[in-house]
Amino acid sequence: MPRATVRLQLHAGYTLHDAHACVDYYADLGVSHLYLSPITCARPGSTHGYDVIDHGAVNPELGGESALRDLARAARRRGLGLIADIVPNHMAAHPANAWWRDVLEHGAASAHARCFDIDWNAPDPALRGKVLLPILPDSYGESLNQGVMALRHDATTGRVELEVSGQRYPVAPESLARGLDPQTLLRRCDPARASGRERLHRLLQSQHYRLAWWRCAADQINWRRFFEISELVGVRVEDEAVFDAVHALPLRLYAQGLLDGLRIDHIDGLAAPGAYLRRLNRCLAEAGASRPPACAQSQAYLVAEKILASDEAPDGRWQLHGTTGYDFMDQVGALLHDPQAEAPLRAFWQMLTGDLRTPQRQLEAARTRMLQRHFSAERLALVRCLERLARHDRRTRDWSAPAMDRVLSAWLAAFPVYRTYAEDGGRSDADRDRCDAAAQRAATLLRALPGSADAALLAQLDRWLSGLPADPATADHAAAPLAQGETEAAQSLRRFQQLTPPLAAKALEDTLFYRYGPLLSRNEVGASPQRFALAPEAFHALVEARAREFPHAMLATATHDHKRGEDARARLAVLSEMPQAWRKTAYRWIHALPDAGQLTLADRYLLVQTLIGAWPAGWDADIIEQRPASVAAWIERVAQWQLKALREAKLHTSWTDPDSAYEAAGLGALEFLRDAAPGRRLLAEIAAYALELAPAGMINSLAQTLLRNTLPGVPDLYQGTEFWDVSLVDPDNRRAVDYPPRIAMLARARASAAVRPSAADWRSGAVKQALIQRLLSARLRHSALFGQGECIPLAATGTHARHVVAWLRCHEDECAVIAAPRLCALRLSGYARGEPRAAREFWADTALCLPDAVRDLAWRDAMGDEKARRGADGALPLPDLLCELPVALWLSPAA
């Protein structure tokens, strides 16, 4: 099992060759595995790799398979393994994708038609036997008149193709007149002439795809997309042949010892995750038998990207090592927020917005909007499936599609988790509980009284989508196989379970988290607006459950998808320790921004929070006048965040209907801060405030860094975040990492006998890197202790006992004490200001209480060579433990 991983984002600007050059650095830092973003062929120029065009080859833009082999050899020499991110659930709907291109050329007769969820019998006659291709910049007629579509002859292949907005699409061979010279065909179909447009139109009508305005996708799409992204098409990996084609490369690379594990992207997008995991594990076991002896391992490491609700755990039927760590990211973040701040901050937000609805009601509204305007085609396709299912039974045939749509929409709006997993032998107990809760809430939304028609239809929907066998009286009809071997009931369940995940993600992460913001540090992937803070006892219960059920799950605090960097969140969390003072300051700044007549108070507040969280820790406020170009570049990054935030919120502008005036008002606020003298003074004030918070934010950051690297699980480091990470949402969080200073700082840290950071080390982030290196070094030396050891919470005594969280980890004769501060970062800022003596005075009489079995042990500081003094009762005084740093890892002599 991995000891610790580092996530690397690969693209043409950071290839496998570049990763090769970083092997020594990450080995010296202490990770055991490089965790790579997708390595398969992606759409040309892809910056992330999830828009796959060929599952069977390593992307040549990354260096190809030879570069992967070189990286694997270099990693192996330093004792490192490789984990690859795989994308089994979607591909790029792009003509460079040979599978997709073949479907566009040959339609349902294509050998690759089985790869995708396409409804060849769509209710719209114009789409029967065709694929909707919503790629036109305007309506079809306007695009045709404007010459957006034109035929081209490829002299290399001799083929006639259709060019649309710079991309070439295939033309069905049977649609071309035999013996007609290509150049003659191009002249006859020249869109510059009316007669040419008419001939071109007739030719386009005979294709296996129907060109359409991009706006048509939400209402008319007849194939499953990834989320609402029409550039990504869902893959039917539940088909055995498709599974084999998608996984041939990673299984071969695993068999050859080049890969040691896999990360499954968005497992909830699959039709049957449980069955998928069983098949994948069987294939990995077979491939593992062929691994070279030097790379032998008992099983492949396997984790899945899965967003869990606050009371949810991965399905117990799944065969995997755990999630990629969004759950831990949320939990440790909630631990560092003061619950007493939630009410005043929420009241402040309500005052700014005038919206008194609960977060749950706002989420339901966001889900309803997504269902009506973004997933209407998927919703109606499910309704049609249910309508056909109803027709098979005399008792249900009278239910109409409009009634089903109304009741189903209420149920979906109230659905509390990403999805159920009823395809795998029926619902689990947890699935049943959540479906019951959704039904009860839907009944409230519908005002459906017991015994009413809507209540009866809700109960019927619940039965149809339960995954249980159909009633024997209707089984003969409902079980009749449809396209791709599915029954009506199975297709209904699949469509339901593949609709709820994108609905959940787009409504919460990409809508509500941009329109609800009492404190943005709690608006993160994996979080919930219903959970602002987490008590230590609740946090430990989650730690204990993870240790018991998924001890090798990843623990992350930053990812390629986070909304803001882990240290930006840690800094903003400090505001929960001072909500009243923050409200006054924020209110003044909000009104100091220029009034362009449009930008709402709420959007100003979101901007102010973002400026506070994202101000670089190494910048003084005077940089605004001394280095205006640097500040202008930073403001441009904030502007990219702001545009995305405003459009994702979908309140005043959106991606589909942008309001240029409102967006200009937002940009105007940033230009005021950059260009106007009063604005620069305001920005200087905001920067000074951020720098006052920064030391306390660093305390929080080291606390979450300590817990990520010492609690049960596999710590995952996101590239570059070993220094302070105050990045914003993608693409900002995927910017290039500056490695030379990190390499130099690490060499200095490894040469030092102890971690004794200067004020400069705090500002640069070197202290965080040094802490990570020491913690990972301890994990290396004592792998059994951290990989298998018990994790027992420790009580504290003294004046500030409630401000420390601590654990004892034990395995055989090895022990470790872990201690971190909580909700006292402002009072510990001295550590980060180079004044540790003043900071540790805060702890005064506070001490950790040790169990009898270990109270007589002596302890060694993993950050240096000091030994802790013990009180007469065997307790560990916190002033001794937290001497130079606000966090501690102490090891027993045997350890």
Based on the model shown, name its key terms.
alpha/beta; five-stranded antiparallel β-sheet; 895 residues
Descriptive notes:
This protein is an alpha/beta fold and 895 residues long. An eight-stranded parallel β-sheet has the order 16-15-14-5-2-1-18-17. The protein has a five-stranded antiparallel β-sheet with strand order 19-21-22-26-24. A three-stranded antiparallel β-sheet has the order 6-13-12, with no helix packed on it. A hairpin with a 2-residue loop joins β9 (159-164) and β10. α13 (359-374) packs across α15. It is globular. The mean pLDDT is 95.
**Low-pLDDT segments, ≥5 res:** none
The outline comes out as globular
What is the subunit arrangement here? single chain
- Please bin the fraction of helical residues: 40-55%
**Classification by helices and strands:** alpha/beta
Mean residue pLDDT: 95
Largest sheet: 8 strands, parallel
